[in-house]
Automatic annotation (TrEMBL):
<keyword id="KW-0547">Nucleotide-binding</keyword>
<dbReference type="GO" id="GO:0033063">
    <property type="term" value="C:Rad51B-Rad51C-Rad51D-XRCC2 complex"/>
</dbReference>
<dbReference type="InterPro" id="IPR052093">
    <property type="entry name" value="HR_Repair_Mediator"/>
</dbReference>
<keyword id="KW-0234">DNA repair</keyword>
<feature type="domain" description="RecA family profile 1">
    <location>
        <begin position="83"/>
        <end position="265"/>
    </location>
</feature>
<keyword id="KW-0539">Nucleus</keyword>
<keyword id="KW-0067">ATP-binding</keyword>
<dbReference type="InterPro" id="IPR013632">
    <property type="entry name" value="Rad51_C"/>
</dbReference>
<keyword id="KW-0227">DNA damage</keyword>
<protein>
    <recommendedName>
        <fullName>DNA repair protein RAD51 homolog 3</fullName>
    </recommendedName>
</protein>
<dbReference type="GO" id="GO:0007131">
    <property type="term" value="P:reciprocal meiotic recombination"/>
</dbReference>
<dbReference type="GO" id="GO:0033065">
    <property type="term" value="C:Rad51C-XRCC3 complex"/>
</dbReference>
<dbReference type="InterPro" id="IPR027417">
    <property type="entry name" value="P-loop_NTPase"/>
</dbReference>
<dbReference type="GO" id="GO:0140664">
    <property type="term" value="F:ATP-dependent DNA damage sensor activity"/>
</dbReference>
<dbReference type="GO" id="GO:0005657">
    <property type="term" value="C:replication fork"/>
</dbReference>
<dbReference type="GO" id="GO:0008821">
    <property type="term" value="F:crossover junction DNA endonuclease activity"/>
</dbReference>
<dbReference type="GO" id="GO:0000400">
    <property type="term" value="F:four-way junction DNA binding"/>
</dbReference>
């Protein structure tokens, strides 16, 4: 259901300069509906304002009306979310924590120290997003934006082979339904060697997605890499990061796809000189992802934890997992195991050094 009351909004409620507002009122243009079908030249002549000012007014009102025309009820949004199945990870523990898997129409951040499994999880998602619906997949394609040279084809082959065998064994799928060749053909890899490449790549994704409607997953591995090395100007760094974050959020919502970005960890020190690890890129970026996961080693070093530290709809929690030759898989315990504790100071989530070393 959409609203139809945008035509009734008073012109006086828009941030239009007072002299122009006065002329519009005097000419009888009191609501958006009274000017919505006019050309700049017509409004200029009727209200005795310049064509440039008329164009600015119509542009402002037009954008606002478009926003209202796209308004939906909360129930309609909920129904849409239920129609789009999340991307499973093949770890039931992680999928259960995320209420089914990595969600569509959302940006999910995966942070963690080097070697904990961020890229492994991203590669796994590029495979599982292609799984047939009978096996719990969404039969989609994936985009992998590689900033570090981390895309490993041989590792992808291992995961793909295991996933194909899993689907054939559980659902008796014929060979021609889903195979290694089709998995390779449905992952589009973009290599971005500097931050300008990354920005350009993100900004052209909209057109790419229009012509590749089967894409259901975008991965950036990693977002932090170039921002920590290429941009020393803090103000410019913030503007570029904000532009990328805003575009990724729009793509996720407009195309009903899952967006996953990996982030590195950095050290923060408190007033006592006590250090802790926290996701990089600062607090302004921290508001961009809908879901934030921190991957961490268990002190025993025999398995790892995925901890949900931010979600607008789910409680925080931790899920044990392991990285095997076949990919991301569950860990099973004979006795209860204590998950890591993620602390938040000054709005910044972090983990103590004791939990990772």
């Amino acid at each position: 259901m959409t609203t139809n009351n945008s035509n009734c909004r008073p012109i006086s409620t828009y941030p239009i300069p007072a002299p122009i507002q006065s002329k519009l009122n005097k000419a009888g243009f009191l609501t958006t509906g009274s000017i919505s079908n006019l050309r700049p030249s017509e409004l200029s002549s009727s209200a005795e304002i310049s064509v440039e000012d008329a164009a600015d007014v119509l542009d402002l009102v037009g954008k606002s009306m478009g926003m209202f025309l796209n308004t939906k009820t909360a129930f309609a949004i909920l129904q849409e979310e239920h129609l789009h199945h999340p991307v499973i990870t093949l770890s039931r523990n992680i999928d259960r924590m995320l209420s089914g898997g990595v969600p569509m129409s959302k940006v999910t951040e995966i942070s963690g120290i080097a070697g904990v499994g961020k890229t492994q999880l991203c590669l796994q998602l590029c495979v599982t997003v292609q799984m047939p619906e009978e096996c719990g997949g969404v039969q989609g394609q994936a985009i992998f934006i590689d900033t570090e040279g981390s895309f490993n084809v041989s590792r992808l082959e291992d995961m793909s082979q295991a996933c194909v065998e899993h689907c054939r064994n559980t659902m008796n799928l014929p060979f021609d339904v889903w195979n290694l060749e089709s998995i390779r053909d449905n992952i589009f890899v973009f290599r971005c060697k500097e931050v300008t490449d990354l920005l350009s790549c993100v900004m052209v994704l909209k057109e790419f997605l229009k012509s590749h409607c089967q894409v259901k997953l975008i991965v950036i591995d990693s977002l932090a890499f170039h921002f920590r090395h290429d941009l020393e100007n803090t103000a410019l760094r913030s503007r570029v990061l904000h532009k990328i974050a805003a575009e990724l959020s729009r793509l996720a919502v407009d195309f009903k796809i899952a967006v996953v970005v990996t982030n590195q960890m950095t050290t923060k020190f408190d007033s006592k000189g006590q250090g802790r690890l926290t996701p990089a890129l600062g607090t302004s970026w921290g508001h961009a992802p809908t879901f934030r996961l921190i991957l961490d080693w268990d002190p025993s070093r025999s398995f790892r934890w995925a901890t949900l530290i931010k979600s607008s709809s789910l409680p925080s929690g931790s899920a044990p997992y392991q990285v095997t030759k076949d990919g991301i898989r569950d860990v099973f315990f004979e006795k209860e195991t204590t998950p890591p504790v993620v602390n938040v100071e000054d709005g910044i989530p972090g983990i103590s050094f004791n939990s990772v070393f």
